[in-house]
């Protein structure tokens, strides 16, 4: 009888050819999915939300990652905390999925009660000698970087988050994301592996054919092009754009806004890239006509021409503009489904209908996110087809995908695969 053995994860990693997309099994197999969750969502820093998700004391929100459930909350002293959503009695979940307001965390099972600091304050019928002090909710290691909440579930969080923190604390300060308002939020489930979601986000090769709304304000050339492919006119335009880019970067930097590209994408634990990009057209914001959607600008910003500070991580992408920010985080749900959670941020005092029009604020990234979900689903379906063979990345427009795939293999190896 013919017997087939599934190849090991290690041999799938070996099979990856440089400059090419990953072997199918790395996108589709259940055992790889479980390994990915462990390596990339437990042992690396991930972005799970924002301080302004929980603006008031007692605000809480539950974030589920695989079998791990976390509570992001603001305690009575205004401090942000992340604790495990697991009662220290017999393990019951404390809160259900979604957002809530709490004065204490009360377990629905036997009413053990925790303060918002995580300390156990009430545990009836446990006897005189019962020590409440060692039964606090398990805290999660967290860092707020300019109001963006990063956590790591490992006991040994990678130290190179320090570079991201150093670079972004200064860049994000003027936007005061900490005190922004979440004006709108969407959850989109993409029918594709999380790595296809990230690959799709790291190239704009697909933009001109698929994102008419985004292309009004976004310059796809910024993420690479082959000069030989361009017509003489387009080439002249591209050269003009890069001259302008150099000039604008210098101006922004002289005005005190760090702007040049900084990246840490390979041979590192914490994967990120940031750069202040030019917004084309009216030059202000990622809206249908590239003008600002909110009259009240973010934080302490007084000008609309600060471009788009983009920031990638391995589970998030973000765009910070003068008038608003768009923050997307992803959580893998299964080998072939990925949650994409997107939030639109405005100044905390900006009022819908007065300072901003919600449709204008959200329409570009709502359309883009839906278009991307469609693209990722098509990509995943093709990768699942036995006819799929890993294909070559463009050396001009997809170099960042090659770096991502290389980083992925390297991190899997570093964790014993
Ligand atoms: S499991 Fe929570 S109080 Fe018993
Ligand atoms: Fe896209």
UniProtKB/TrEMBL annotation:
Ranges where the Rieske domain occurs: 45-151
This protein's record includes keyword Iron-sulfur: yes
Protein keywords: 2Fe-2S, Iron, Iron-sulfur, Metal-binding, Oxidoreductase
Top-level taxon in the UniProt lineage: Bacteria
SUPFAM superfamilies: Bet v1-like, ISP domain
Signal sequence bounds: none
Pfam families, A to Z: Rieske (PF00355), Ring_hydroxyl_A (PF00848)
Cofactor(s) required, per the database record: Fe cation
InterPro entries recorded: Rieske_2Fe-2S, Rieske_2Fe-2S_sf, Ring_hydroxy_dOase_asu_C_dom, Rng_hydr_dOase-A
Name of the featured protein: Rieske 2Fe-2S family protein
């Amino acid at each position: 009888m013919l017997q087939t053995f599934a190849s090991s994860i290690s041999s799938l990693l070996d099979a990856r050819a440089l400059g090419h997309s990953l072997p199918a099994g790395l996108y589709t197999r259940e055992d790889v999915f479980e390994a990915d969750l462990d390596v990339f969502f437990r042992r690396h820093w991930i972005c799970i939300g924002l301080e302004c998700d929980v603006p008031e004391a007692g605000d809480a929100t539950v974030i589920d990652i695989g079998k791990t459930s976390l509570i992001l909350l603001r305690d009575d002293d205004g401090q942000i905390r992340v604790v495990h959503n697991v009662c220290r009695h017999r393990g019951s979940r404390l809160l259900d999925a979604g957002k809530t307001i709490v004065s204490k965390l009360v377990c629905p099972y036997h009413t053990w009660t925790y303060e918002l600091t995580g300390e156990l304050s009430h545990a009836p019928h446990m006897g005189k000698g019962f020590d409440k002090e060692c039964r606090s909710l398990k805290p999660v290691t967290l860092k707020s970087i300019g109001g963006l909440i990063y956590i790591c579930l490992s006991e040994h969080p990678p130290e190179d988050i320090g570079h991201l923190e150093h670079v972004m604390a200064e860049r994000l300060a003027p936007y005061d994301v900490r005190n922004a308002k979440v004006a709108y939020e969407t959850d989109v489930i993409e029918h594709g592996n999380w790595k296809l979601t990230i690959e799709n986000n790291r190239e704009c090769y697909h933009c001109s054919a698929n994102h008419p709304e985004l292309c009004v304000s976004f310059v796809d050339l910024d993420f690479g092009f082959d000069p030989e492919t361009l017509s003489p006119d387009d080439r002249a335009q591209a050269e003009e754009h890069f001259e302008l880019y150099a000039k604008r970067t210098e101006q922004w930097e002289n005005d005190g806004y760090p702007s040049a590209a900084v990246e840490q994408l390979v041979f590192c634990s914490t994967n990120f890239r940031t750069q202040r990009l030019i917004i084309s057209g009216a030059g202000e914001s990622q809206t249908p006509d590239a003008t600002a959607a909110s009259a009240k600008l973010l934080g302490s910003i007084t000008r609309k021409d600060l471009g788009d500070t983009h920031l990638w991580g391995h589970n998030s992408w973000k765009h910070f503009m003068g008038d608003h920010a768009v923050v997307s985080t992803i959580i893998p749900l299964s080998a072939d489904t990925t949650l994409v959670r997107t939030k639109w941020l405005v100044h905390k005092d900006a009022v819908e209908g007065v300072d901003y029009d919600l449709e204008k604020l959200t329409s570009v990234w709502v359309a883009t996110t839906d278009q991307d979900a469609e693209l990722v689903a098509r990509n995943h379906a093709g990768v699942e087809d036995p006819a799929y063979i890993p294909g070559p990345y463009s050396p001009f427009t997809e170099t960042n995908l090659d770096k991502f795939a290389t980083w992925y293999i390297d991190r899997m190896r570093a964790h014993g695969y």
